[in-house]
Amino acid sequence: MTVTLATWDAVWEVYLDPKWAQQRLRLYGAQDWALEQFFKKLEKKMAEVSMERHGRAKQ
To answer: For position 55, what pLDDT does the model report?
Structure first.
């Protein structure tokens, strides 16, 4: 606990550095993009599976 209190200011100084803020923003953007791509693929695959199971939509 004492070590944490002694280093707290230094940790926040680095955490709030604009360089690291930009890095976190890029990381979150990349995570968002990766999740979006994953769910697009999943949605496409589920549509294909649905078509296989139920056949083409009847009109």
So the answer is: 80
pLDDT digits (tens, 9 = 90+) for 11-44: 888 889 999 989 999 999 999 999 999 999 999 9
Q: What is the largest CA-CA distance in the chain?
A: 72
State residue 23's pLDDT score.
94
Residue 59's pLDDT is what? 44
- Per the structure block, which two tokens stand in for 1? 């606990």
Decide: 14 and 20 in contact? Cβ < 8 Å: yes
- Find out whether 42 and 36 touch, Cβ atoms under 8 Å: no
**55 is written with which tokens?**
């056949």
